[in-house]
Write a structure and sequence with these properties.
By secondary structure, this protein is of the alpha+beta class. It has one domain: GMP Synthetase, Chain A, domain 3 (2-Layer Sandwich), CATH 3.30.300. It has four helices and three strands; from the N terminus they run ααββαβα. Helix 2 crosses helix 3.
Length: 106
C-alpha cells in the first residue's frame, strides 16, 4: 500500500459484507431517483477487494443505460458513492458479452 494513500473509513471497514452490499444497493437506488432514471436499472453485482485487500471495488451492470451515456453515468455514480457512502469506493462496469452469436464464434 502507498503510505500516502488513506485507508477506507472505519465505519465502512466495520460493516459486514452483507451490510456493505445493502448500503451500496440503497445508494444506487437513491442515485437513480436523483437522476430521474426510475425506468432504468443499474444492477449491483458485487464488491471486491482492491490490490491492498480493502473491499472498495463496486461492480455494476450498466447494460440498461445507453452505451453512449455509460461512461459519464459511471463517473457520476462513482462521485455520488464517494460523497455519500465511502470516499475510497471505485465503480467498475461488469463485462457484457457480445450478444451476436456469429461474432462470438471466432
Amino acid at each position: 500500500m502507498n503510505e500516502f494513500d488513506l485507508l477506507p473509513g472505519r465505519a465502512w471497514s466495520a460493516l459486514t459484507d452483507e451490510a456493505r452490499s445493502e448500503r451500496v444497493s440503497q445508494s444506487i437506488a437513491a442515485f437513480l431517483a436523483l437522476k430521474t432514471r426510475r425506468g432504468k436499472n443499474l444492477a449491483f453485482e458485487r464488491i471486491e477487494p482492491d490490490l491492498d485487500g480493502y473491499p472498495v471495488r463496486v461492480f455494476v451492470d450498466f447494460s440498461d443505460i445507453e452505451s453512449k451515456d455509460r461512461p459519464d453515468f459511471a463517473r457520476k455514480l462513482e462521485v455520488y458513492l464517494k460523497n455519500n457512502l465511502e470516499y475510497k469506493l471505485q465503480v467498475y462496469a461488469i463485462e457484457i458479452k457480445d450478444r451476436n452469436r456469429i461474432r462470438r464464434l471466432g
